[in-house]
């Protein structure tokens, strides 16, 4: 007769918490949303205090990062360096999190 495991036995397979968390995000299709929120939350670390202090609002819709910048010259400089900003985001958060940046 075959014996079935009872519900109180532990699984011998263990995985790091980060790996399990990423699997959960994948399973519930929340990985993109989580990555987008992380980009917004870490904007100051990503761009520095000067840019962050002149950023009034950040949002991501349909893989486009919208950044409202209060300084005209800074906005112009960021427009000129848009590809560098996209590369920076891609290198830190992965490809496909943000495909474009719009400065308002």
TrEMBL record:
Q: Which InterPro entries match?
A: DciA-like (IPR007922)
Q: What is this protein called?
A: DUF721 domain-containing protein
Q: Which organism is it from?
A: Cyclobacterium xiamenense
Source species taxonomy: Bacteria, Pseudomonadati, Bacteroidota, Cytophagia, Cytophagales
